[in-house]
Task: inverse folding
């Protein structure tokens, strides 16, 4: 879209994400880094299958994978500066075909989240070291693929202040807050690399906090949030336009 001219003639950009962790009517954002860069990885371990009663004749890919899951948990806890932010989560582990057969292969996949490219490279490097040594210890081969995701969402401080100011005027101070950074990712970051702007959250959850989280099978929104979001987006755009006209 950017290559096709979506930002031609555009001075500032704004984006909204309905967010069920916040009660409906709440507005939240922050200056600077807001959302992380969401990277993904895949690991395939290749051993030699065999009879479950004769493990010495096999090279157990499942055991190697299990050791790897545990070892990779040390990347963030022991290699990343605790004052930085990073996440390494393994979401899939697939191995084995029967109860009495030693697995000849194991596949793992997951996600890495960070805000700083230097942290991303540190995590990737440590993962590579750990995977190589764990697999060597178990005598198995492997492949490791790391896929870089979107850049982090980084809000322009001036535009973030505008959103918070306009939202406070429209909804009241009690429903507007500066939020913490969030480890979810968002491709609006590409726009923010090209133009100053702000990405912000509009609450879409129940007041008692019982709404299902995003990506949950029971996910739903309070549809009143749609009205709040549209009104706020218009108000922010009007405020920016009025400022530009005065300038």
Result:
């Amino acid at each position: 879209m950017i290559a096709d001219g979506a930002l031609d003639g555009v001075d500032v950009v704004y984006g909204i994400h309905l967010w069920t962790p916040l009660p409906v009517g709440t507005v939240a954002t922050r200056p600077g880094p807001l959302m992380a860069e969401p990277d993904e990885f895949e690991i395939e371990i290749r051993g030699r299958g065999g009879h479950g009663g004769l493990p010495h004749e096999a090279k157990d890919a499942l055991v190697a994978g299990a050791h790897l899951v545990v070892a990779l948990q040390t990347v963030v806890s022991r290699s990343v500066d605790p004052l930085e932010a990073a996440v390494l989560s393994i979401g899939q582990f697939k191995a084995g075909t029967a109860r009495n057969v030693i697995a000849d292969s194991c596949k793992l996949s997951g996600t890495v989240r960070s805000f700083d490219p230097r942290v991303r490279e540190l995590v990737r490097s440590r993962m590579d070291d750990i995977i190589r040594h764990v697999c060597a210890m178990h005598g198995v081969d492997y492949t490791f693929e790391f896929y870089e995701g979107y850049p982090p969402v980084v809000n322009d401080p001036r535009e973030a202040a505008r959103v918070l100011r306009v939202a406070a005027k429209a909804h009241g101070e009690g429903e507007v807050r500066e939020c913490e950074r969030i480890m979810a990712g968002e491709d609006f970051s590409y726009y923010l690399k090209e133009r100053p702007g702000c990405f912000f959250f509009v609450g879409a959850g129940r007041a008692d906090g019982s709404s299902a989280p995003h990506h949950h099978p029971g996910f739903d929104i309070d549809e009143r949030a749609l009205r709040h979001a549209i009104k706020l987006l218009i108000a922010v755009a009007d405020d920016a336009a009025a400022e530009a006209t005065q300038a």
